[in-house]
Specification:
about 400 residues, alpha+beta, Immunoglobulin-like, five-stranded mixed β-sheet, binds copper (II) ion
Amino acid sequence: MSLRKFITNKTTAALAVLLTVFANTSAFAQEAAAGAAAAPKVDMGEVYKSVIFYTLIFLAVCVFIAIIGKAIKVYELSREAQGKPIGINWNGVHASLFALFLVLGLYGVYWEYTVHGSMLLPDAASEHGKKIDEMFNLTLIITTIVFIATHILLFGFAYIYKYSAKRKAYYYPHNNTIEKIWTIVPALVLTVLVLMGFLTWRSIFFKVEDPNNKPLQIEVTSEQFKWSIRYPGADGIVGKKNYKLTTASNTLGIDFKDLNSRDDEMADEMVIPVGKPVKLILNSKDVIHSFYMPHFRVQLNTVPGMQTIFEFTPTKTTRQMQEETNDPNFKFLFYCAKICGSGHYNMQKDVRVVSEAEYKTWIAEQKTYLNDDLRKQFNLPVAPAPAKPAAEGDSSATDSAAVKGNQMALNK
Ligand SMILES: [Cu+2]
């Protein structure tokens, strides 16, 4: 066989496709195996068995179709040899397949919308989330109408105007009116959608702060592969950080020289009061992660070396959501939505939305992060100064701490 024949040969082509598919899957498998090397061994036997099973089924179907095709070819050739007209009306077959594809496809769309549609997230649990849902729904309605209309036209025309010996194609090269309609209508629709998106974005990211309803600051730091949550303490301000101060006991590199840091608290879960604005201060210690709170329609990258900020107001408590979804185990969560490494799947934490009173009780129980070890590191007095009048203080540092302690006492 000459090289040219070898390259154009169908069997060679089929083998090449199979080889490429196999090479790709095994490359992915190797990568996954490398990533999972540290993780406990997972028995992949069943998975490989099922891959081989479906490959065999696929090959069997291909062989079956090829046999049918060859049989039809033989039938047609024998009719041709006998001088009879071709037995199968291929134009009719193809047109009917188009019509069938349209019907099955539309049923598939209906199935997707009802079966998978009911698995979508529940209604947004935040103020801005409602606007995002409205935009999502409007976009979905418009694109669905266009999708169904264009597909009925596409496959319907292929069926209705299939080849017929009795009919001659009508030459129709251009129509300005149609051109205008299908340019202006999509332009208008897209303008409305883009403007809505722009205004919604602005309303979410450019908020005017209400001095009577200041947002609760919470700092969230991502790293491979966990989240750290820092609350601001009584002063309501999350203190400064500096990566150069990172040590085994001060893993976030909190700068305790900054007075705002001294009363900061670390939490294992995010607890937020319902109806109050929350200002998330996001950053990362290593790679880019993505802070994702699907029920609140919040998602923003956490980037090493910079802060990103997202402000939102939760509108439903966890308990309310448990009632609404009829699931007593329902939990709000936040995740990492950026594939950041082998432990990415495990990056999630609970979010509990509670009443204002429950929040106050919870926050009062949280301990400050600054402990004796850290005090030594930062040359701060080890025994915390008890709340006493500022006049009796000795050094400036303890002075401010005492003032702060008094403020805390007053706040309570
Ligand atoms: Cu991540």
